[in-house]
Amino acid sequence: MSTSPLKLPPLKQWINGVWLGSEGISRPVHNPGNQVFIAEVPQCTHDQIEAAIDAAHQAFPLWSTTPPSQRAYILKQWHAKILQNLDDLIVLLSTEQGKPYAEAKAELMSAAAAVEWSAEEARRIQGSIVAHTQSDKRLMVLRQPIGVAGAITPWNFPAGMVTRKVAPALAAGCTVILKPASQTPLTALALGKLLEEAGLPKGVMNILIGSAEKIGHAFATDSRIQKISFTGSTAVGQRLNELAAPHLKRLSLELGGNAPFIMFEDADIDAAIEGVMASKFRNAGQTCICANRLYVHKSHYATVVERIVERVKALRIGIGSAPETQIGPLIDTTAVTRALEWVNEAVSEGAKLHVGGKRHALGENFMEPTVLTDVTHNMRVVKEELFAPVLPILSFENDDEVIQYANATPYGLAAYFYSKNFTKIMRIAERLQSGMIGINAPYPANESVPFGGVKHSGLGREGGHYGLEEYTELKTLCLGDV
Fold first, then answer.
1. What three-state secondary structure class fits 264?
2. Among candidates 49, 45, 459, 16, which has minimal Cα distance to 244?
3. From 288, 290, 447, 462, active-site residue
4. Nearest CA-CA partner of 445 in 420, 418, 471, 466
5. What is the β-pairing status of strands 175-179 and 148-152?
6. Cα separation, 220 vs 246, whole angstroms
7. Is 288 a catalytic residue?
8. pTM over cut 0.85
9. pLDDT by residue (tens digit) across 128-164?
10. CA gap 382, 393 in Å, rounded
11. How far is Cα of residue 126 from the mean position of the Cα atoms in its chain?
């Protein structure tokens, strides 16, 4: 583990290539693990929001016509600088977000990979030539950048969500205004500083730290912004959709989830238990694609419950900087209070508490990892996304039953199942209503494939060439003889 001291990025807005302070209102950032004050970050003014939009709008014509090879070069420089500053970024991310050091490193490596992939993909944005039905005409299809993009990122992945939105937008030729989460703005500012050092022209990328409501409203209603990419709650995504609808903006919305994890009768139980632990308890359960409810075939149910309870009891809880930590803090005390309320509610309705179910002695932002059985589908711990280290376990008897349970939710972001039967694997994968499915694997995401969900889990995709295409639009040319 790195022992380098915490290095702070510029604590300012980044607008048109200049780092600007803000008069008056500021917001503190604390380490959620020990409540230690990290920094005071100024909040942007209305004039700065306008200035950032104007800067991105003014920079778009030149950036959109910059050769893809040049855009790719700058992104490759950004990728290299992320890796060169990896140790400092890991410490910064772990400190402001609270996740264990190993998880912070994994996130940053994934964030860097997204930049590298986008750099490579910038050179592969292609149109097509289509045969016309008339011999004296030719048809061409161009793929061009859509315009200025507003990106709004969440607190749980302060690096990964930034690069997954910004890198493909820049690769496509769009200019960007980034609004990172107020709880975790420092990693985004650090990444912005490295992008500046990579040689990005002024105004092409801008960062606003401030009110999500004010900035989001500006993104949704200002005609100079053509595209919004948002990761967060379904309620906020719906509100953005309402505000943007009259302006017919392109939206990518990665929203809530309620991922089922299914262990079929023919599953490799050892591997499936490892998969549950990896998926459910990553970032203390604060991931949008983590397993939210576990279904175990009745033939394995008692054994699986016993083994998982023992594994959960052995999890090491601590602040993210401690090398032995496996479970860090939740983002704030409100998150812990909410999770405990749901757990206590479930117990009062008949659920059995095997382990956990209370705050940890380390502090008010720590929750003991929790396992519940005898739960029902009417309990909030099962039917809603909890975002905490709480695992409800249910049993099932046959495939049709568990598929019905798994799909009985308005969400469809991720799902997981373990089986050794290839025919069953394909059949179950086709029936599950989720945008991403981990089959005998706890992590379905990768920079080279689309990330996103169905139903109330959102619109559009990020990742791979699919995510880059979200920042482009098609133009048809019909050429007659001259």
1. coil
2. 459
3. 288
4. 466
5. parallel
6. 9
7. yes
8. yes
9. 999 999 999 999 999 999 999 999 999 999 999 999 9
10. 9
11. 27
Q: How many CB atoms lie within 10 A of CB 383?
A: 18
Q: What is the mean pLDDT of residues 454-482?
A: 95
Contact 169, 59 (CB under 8 A): no
Pair 261, 428: CB distance under 8 Å: no
> How many other C-beta atoms are found inside a 10 Å radius of the C-beta of residue 3?
7
The active-site residue, picked from 103, 121, 254, 368, is 254
- Report residue 22's pLDDT band, with 50, 70 and 90 as the boundaries: confident
For residue 54, the SS3 value is: helix
Length of the chain: 482
Count CB neighbours of 413 within 10 A: 27
| 248-276: pLDDT as tens digits | 999 999 999 999 999 999 999 999 999 99
Q: Is 436 exposed, middle or buried (0-12, 13-18, 19+ CB in 10 A)?
A: buried
Between strands 250-254 and 458-459, the pairing is: antiparallel
- Check if the beta carbon of residue 166 is closer than 8 Å to that of residue 205: yes
- Whether residue 32 contacts residue 364, with contact meaning beta carbons closer than 8 Å, is answered with no
In the chain, the percentage of residues whose pLDDT exceeds 70 is: 99
Please give the Cα distance from 258 to 359 (Å, whole number): 23
Tokens of 288: 């949008």
Tokens of 105: 């490193």
Structure-token pair, residue 457: 């889990």
Is the pLDDT at 1 greater than 70, yes or no? Answer: no
The two structure tokens encoding residue 27: 């917001």
Give the chain's mean pLDDT.
96
**Mean per-residue pLDDT for 310-330?**
95
Instruction: From residue 47, give the alpha-carbon distance in Å to each of 44, 51, 372, 437.
Output: 8, 6, 50, 44
pLDDT (average), residues 356-365: 96
| 254 carries an active-site annotation | yes
Residue 111: left (phi > 0), alpha (psi -120 to 50), or beta? Answer: alpha
At residue 4, the pLDDT reads: 66
The residue among 475, 467, 429 whose CA lies nearest residue 167 is 467
The torsion of the CA quartet 349, 351, 352, 355, rounded to 10 degrees, works out to: -110
Instruction: Retrieve residue 13's tokens.
Output: 């807005």
Q: What is the pLDDT of residue 450?
A: 95
pLDDT of residue 2: 45
Report pLDDT digits (tens) over 401-423.
Answer: 999 999 999 999 999 999 999 99
